[in-house]
């Protein structure tokens, strides 16, 4: 037998072994009599996502829509069976009722030794380490802390108006709002998280803007790292791919510790995110290098400086992209609805007159129509389009049709937020932008858990109120000073980028800004 024949046989055997491995679970849902999506060899139900025909958010929404009337749907990510949850009672059980005992952890898996920013941040932390860090960081986002940071956001709102004046003059009134809102939220995050004037609204190539932009820029390696961490954690553990590059890691690490060192030395206080971190670090004796052990709920946790650097990183990343994208979606919808703009402007003016033209925290709470507009934006365009959890131990699912399903420990579950938010069962004519869906009366008539822009339960987004504050203040400053309308190049419908996990449009959204004469 020649070496060519031997090589041929080896290749055939290897491919056969590979096929058998990836198809071993192909009948997993069928033998359990669960409705499921037929898997594609090797790729499961991810073929169209990997080929970039559709983004993962819309892909899960399409499955949600296709299986109307079923409480859950069996799906496959590569060779691993997973479950897409449709029934809202089951959503409640997984995210809230049974969360602590069975569904505390997200699926995302990053090796913190290889990627400390990706593995140590609160989004990906698991178990007792997550509980400890959540309890330490929660006080950072109380109402009192929000009030203390509001004046910092206000200053960025004023800079936003100056920037629009300059850009609209240069381009005859037309402004690219995705870039505009990204620069605004960069300034907000830099100021509130690090006490730094990043000047992104003045200089689009400012260092902070460049670093934040690089976090969300697509690269094949970064995409593979993110994809395996969410949908193939076993592969992530084998290949140890890095999601956050060295430049970003060093920038956040150096910025955090140098800022803390400066404040400690000069006795500077800003009542912002850094001050909160400093209090925790001082109390627990944590240094920039080295580590310490901390007792928490009977567990001994190993904590080092990067555990808090990672929280600063996730505050940057999670506070930047969702707020920026939500603002751009809101402005796009408002550009076609001058009636909604006028109603918002009237409410804003009325409330500010009551508060001596001061946009303070209490004034924001009274702007109910503004809140309805932002809520409807997040309903139609949830920036985080799905929620994921993993079963920590065997779990019995009892659905509304009284069927029981044993969900094995380690099985991933997904909830299509985009699917629920655009389901006509909960929202009549879901493609229509209608803020009145969020009157108190209409909210009370809807089932619980039909609105999940920040997730729900113990792992709900910790910085949701901060993000909303930044979005609302930005919109207030824009609407008080401009009428926003479509321009010649404004798309009549949005095309979504197929690469990122977060909901994002492909290309820019140019809009026209006309100064309001006062």
TrEMBL record:
Entry annotated with the keyword Zinc-finger: no
Major subcellular site: endoplasmic reticulum
CDD domains: CYP6-like
Positions annotated to bind heme: 461
Pfam families for the chain: p450 (PF00067)
Membrane topology, from the record: Peripheral membrane protein
Keywords linked to the UniProt accession: Endoplasmic reticulum, Heme, Iron, Membrane, Metal-binding, Microsome, Monooxygenase, Oxidoreductase, Transmembrane, Transmembrane helix
InterPro entries named in the record: Cyt_P450, Cyt_P450_CS, Cyt_P450_E_grp-II, Cyt_P450_sf, Insect_CytP450_Detox
Any GO MF annotation of the entry: monooxygenase activity
Highest rank taxon of the organism: Eukaryota
Annotated localization: Endoplasmic reticulum membrane; Microsome membrane
Names of the cofactor(s): heme
GO cellular component: endoplasmic reticulum membrane
Transmembrane segments: 6-22
Family under the similarity heading: Belongs to the cytochrome P450 family.
Protein name as it appears in the record: Cytochrome P450
